[in-house]
Amino acid sequence: MPVPLGARGRYIAGMDSPIAPSPRLDAATTRFLATPGSPPVEWLTLDGLTDYETALAAMEARAAAIADGSAPEAVLCLEHPPLYTAGTGAKADDLLDSRFPVFAAGRGGQYTYHGPGQRVAYVMLDLRRRRQDVRAFVAALEAWIIATLADFQVTGERREDRVGVWVRRPERPAAPDGSVAEDKIAAIGIRVRRWVTFHGISLNVDPDLSHFSGIVPCGIRGHGVTSLGDLGILVSLPEVDGLLRKNFEAVFGETREFAESTTLG
């Protein structure tokens, strides 16, 4: 799937840090629909493992086409081989062991891990058709993940100071401050160019959690990572995909299969 890289973005919306000085949780968004008459979002799920540079190039090209009005919005679901990505806020001392390839992602945030058993969904939406509100968009992504987890009887939660979706682990030792232990089950990292989003979410279905040990995930110390498998919920990626798509439509609107006559770019 060779496609050319696009130009660098004008600004970046972050991950794992507050997006604006006002309370982040005030932006509780469960519906983030496009204007009436907008075409459905194209949905493509790739089989096997997709290398990171290919995915990044595809996202950049498709985001540019959406901004130009020559392609509809799209969601690209895939798995990567084991790798680390560094956001624009990544700190050198948060890379503990470069046991896997490290890629500069160009998104907001810090270091994260991608690998087999993790569903990555790259979300390319036109905020001009929706709301030109990045905080609300991130809140909508969190609502999408939380609704999907609820279908597996998992309670996902948002946090004021930590973007992403978290689960409480009362069976584990308490956090250093005495609060209930929490683990991150899904990360969010986005970039916005010309009001079109790209990058997106990663949901831990059943990856090798030891692979996260080479980094301080998202620069957050004192909390761990988990997955559906770690929580005792053994499901396949296709099962997760079906619920992700159902809940995406509830938040963002109608989808359709990726048209064979078009390309990501």
Describe this structure as you would to a colleague.
It is a single chain. The protein is of the alpha/beta class. It has three helices and twelve strands. It starts with 40 loop residues before the first strand and ends in an 8-residue tail after the last strand. The model is unreliable at 1-21 (pLDDT under 50). The active site is at residue 218. The record marks 184 as: Lowers pKa of active site Cys. Residues 69-256 form the BPL/LPL catalytic domain. Pfam families: LplA-B_cat.
Number of strands: 12
Largest sheet: 9 strands, mixed
* Rg estimate, integer Å: 17 Å
Q: Which structural class fits the helix and strand makeup? A: alpha/beta
Tell me the β content.
Answer: 25-35%
Structure in a nutshell:
With 265 residues, the chain is of the alpha/beta class. The chain is 19% helix and 26% strand.
Key words describing this protein structure:
265 residues, nine-stranded mixed β-sheet, 19% helix, 3 helices, three-stranded mixed β-sheet, alpha/beta, globular, 12 strands, disordered N terminus
Break the fold down into its secondary structure elements and pairings.
Blueprint: E1 41-49, H1 52-68, E2 74-79, E3 83-86, E4 102-104, E5 111-114, E6 118-124, H2 134-150, E7 157-159, E8 162-168, E9 182-193, E10 196-204, E11 224-225, H3 237-252, E12 255-257
Parallel strand pairs: 1-2, 1-12, 3-4, 9-11
Antiparallel strand pairs: 2-6, 3-5, 6-10, 7-8, 8-9, 9-10
Binding site for substrate: 107-114, 187-189, 200-202
Family: Belongs to the LipB family.
GO molecular function: transferase activity
